[in-house]
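User: I need a structural model of High-affinity branched-chain amino acid transport system permease protein LivH from Deinococcus aluminii for a docking pre-check later this week. Nothing fancy, just the predicted structure tokens so I can convert them on my end. Input:
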Amino acid sequence: MQLILFQLLNSLAFGMLLFLLSAGFSLIFGVARVANLAHGAFYVLSAYIGYTVAQASGNFWLGVLIATLAGALLGVIVERTLISRLRGHELRQVLLTLGLAFVIADAVRFFWGADIKSVSPPAPFEGPITLGGLIFPSYPFVLTVLGIAVFGLIRLVLRRTLAGAQIRAVTADPQMSATLGLPVARISMLTFAAGIGLAAFGGAVGSPQLALTPTLDSTMTLYALIVVVIGGLGSIEGAFLAAILVGLVNGFGAVYFPAFAQIAVFALMILVIAVRPQGLLGRRLGAA
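Assistant: Understood. Predicted structure tokens for High-affinity branched-chain amino acid transport system permease protein LivH:
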């Protein structure tokens, strides 16, 4: 029983990291129509930035804050200097972000090396906790709560604020939104920055859960794509549900069927595509 509960906790924590990653990816694709293949690279770069700041200052949460802000700032710079110049050329944008992923990965290796780096959870979450006579690590609880809180905050912003209404309008029909006077280019830029900021936050806050390595970028980008495909493009609720499902399948598969853990994740994606091509909670682009 303890093994099952322990794996359930770790799977949920991993699922929340995938949500933070894929929510940004989904926002960027929904508004800017950019399949950002450098998303995992931004996740890893921000994790290393947070690690460096935490090591220098002794404050883990300061590292998370700086990494998140740095990620959002990089998102603004990349969108203004690169992505916006190729608006309407989807294939070129995909190739650009793919090349950017290679550049970021090489930069990470240059500045931090290729060695695996482990990050200790911040106080007071570095030790275990006891629940019902069972012992669990405390930091996965923190990640799970943070993921749920971010999901609630994003949903609140999208459903209850003017900015959220503008984002939903641009996602549904960018041409009509521009005709009605909405600043589509500015909204796309800010959404791109927010999406990268979410990935940066996930990378920094998730570093105690996943060891840092420069090769993690491709893995996280792949997981983001899988979650978005399963949940549905442009759906935050779908990304949240899909991230939990992928986390559970990956976590329990790694314990009980280690040779088929990754295959099981792909099988889940194929099953969802076969039954519901637009994803669990997705809709067709351009639909109202």
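Before docking, keep this in mind: The chain has a mean pLDDT of 87.
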